[in-house]
Write a structure and sequence with these properties.
By secondary structure, this protein is α+β, with helices and mostly antiparallel strands. Helix content is 43%, strand content 8%. Strands 3, 4, 5, 6 and 7 form a five-stranded mixed beta sheet that branches. A two-stranded antiparallel sheet has the order 1-2. A hairpin with a 5-residue loop joins strand 5 and strand 6. Helix 4 packs across helix 5.
């Protein structure tokens, strides 16, 4: 395996390592003939029982210190100058020079973990750039008089985690379910994205909200990285052996650009954000059993299952005085500018409502958004129906939906 000076381009910015050798393994994963190595894969990690090796080695050869126990582990392998951290790119070097096998595989995995954490720390700002490309225009199009105390800021953190979730431990940016799931689980479990309790998205100043998330998220990365560096290597909570367990960080990393991330996540982020903006204004889907004509963008007629006619859906908002206003301009924008279909606008939220026991605005995406833009509940609005329990024929749509069906409108 040959190592060379490393230049990484992440989301459009170039980062030159201060190390004289690459912080990421390069080449084919094959060592010199005098120290032949196996492929850098989780299979190799498992076959060589490296988890067991590390546990045994740490118990017998590593003396715990108050800080930087990862360096202590490396020193026990014969590499005392192996220093990881933010903006520090520790390097495993050549196999057997000086670290012997199988310890060298662990050094490569630690190197990749450190590079991954640095990439995440940098890519947080680029996740903000991706969001800032479209969120201001979404607010301008759909929320001309925004309120800043409605949407929890944690929803913005979820958007960031979505973008960061396509960054793999090693290899190329991927939307494969297993890769994304592994990355998101690591972000949620090890880095612990900020929850921003009691803070709200400033729709009137989206950039300020994004800046808050950037600061908090990067602080979480720094805290997580330092906690692992300093923890006893076999600590059950933060120790490096737990991070490396299973060999997920054994591999050959690849560079990525902003375009790589943006092309994977933009559709899902936009669809989700538009739903948030409309929710903040109390826009909702009203469905009714008969009388549909579909004369407007903000209406959809569907054949009833029993063949007795057409049921209808309308996109509605209260005018503030209990009058229902058809949101035709909003629906037209969704259809013509943002590529929505009427099913996405109407039957999508209704389907989410029905599938979740008729609970309003269920968000099943705990840590990050799905990358499939057709996923149920990604675009979500409150739903009210004339055939739902408690409908009072003496009241209008808004009063029924608010007073009898509990909509926050």
């Amino acid at each position: 395996m040959r190592f060379s000076t490393f230049t990484s381009t992440i989301c459009g910015l170039s980062l030159l390592s201060t190390s004289s050798a690459t912080p990421l393994p390069q080449g084919t994963g094959t060592g010199a003939d005098s120290c032949a190595t196996k492929e850098l894969t989780t299979t190799t990690w498992t076959d060589l029982k490296i988890d067991d090796f590390l546990k045994s080695w740490a118990a017998s050869n590593v003396t715990a210190t108050t800080t930087n126990n990862v360096q202590s582990l490396a020193s026990s392998f014969g590499a005392p100058n192996f220093f990881c951290g933010l903006d520090n790119f520790c390097n495993a070097g050549q196999p057997c020079l000086p670290v012997e096998l199988p310890a060298w595989y662990a050094m490569v995995a630690i190197q990749n973990w450190n590079s991954y954490m640095n990439s995440i720390n940098t890519a947080i700002t680029f996740a903000s750039s991706i969001a800032s490309l479209t969120l201001p225009s979404i607010v301008s199009d759909f929320y001309p008089k925004p309120k800043d105390n409605v949407t929890p800021l944690i929803t913005a953190s979820k958007i960031f985690t979505t973008a960061l979730g396509v960054i793999p431990f090693t290899g190329a940016v991927s939307t494969a379910a297993s890769a994304v799931s592994g990355s998101v689980s690591f972000l949620a479990g090890r880095i612990k994205p900020p929850t921003e309790t009691n803070l709200f998205v400033k729709w009137s100043d989206v950039a300020a909200s994004l800046a808050t998330v950037v600061s908090d998220y990067q602080a979480a990365v720094s805290t997580s990285l330092k906690a692992t560096l300093d923890a006893k290597v076999d600590d059950s909570g933060n120790g490096i052996l737990g991070v490396l367990s299973g060999g997920g960080f054994l591999g050959i990393a690849q560079n990525f650009t902003q375009a790589d991330l943006q092309s994977k996540v933009t559709d899902s982020i936009n669809i989700y954000a538009i739903g948030l903006v409309l929710q903040a204004q109390g826009v909702f889907v009203y469905r009714y059993p008969s009388g549909c004509t579909e004369e407007y963008y903000a209406e959809l007629c569907v054949d009833k299952a029993d063949g007795s006619g057409k049921a209808g859906y309308s996109l509605i908002k209260s005018d503030g005085n209990s009058n229902a206003e058809l949101q035709d301009d909003t629906a037209k924008l969704l259809l013509e500018k943002y590529g929505f279909t009427k099913d996405m606008i109407f039957t999508g939220p209704a389907g989410c409502f029905d599938a979740n026991g008729k609970k309003q605005l269920v968000d099943p995406f705990t840590d990050a958004l799905p990358l499939d833009k057709t996923s149920q509940c990604l675009f979500n609005l409150q739903v009210c129906g004339r055939e739902e329990t408690g409908w009072d024929s003496k009241k209008g749509i808004v009063d029924n939906c608010r007073d009898n069906q509990g909509l926050a409108i």
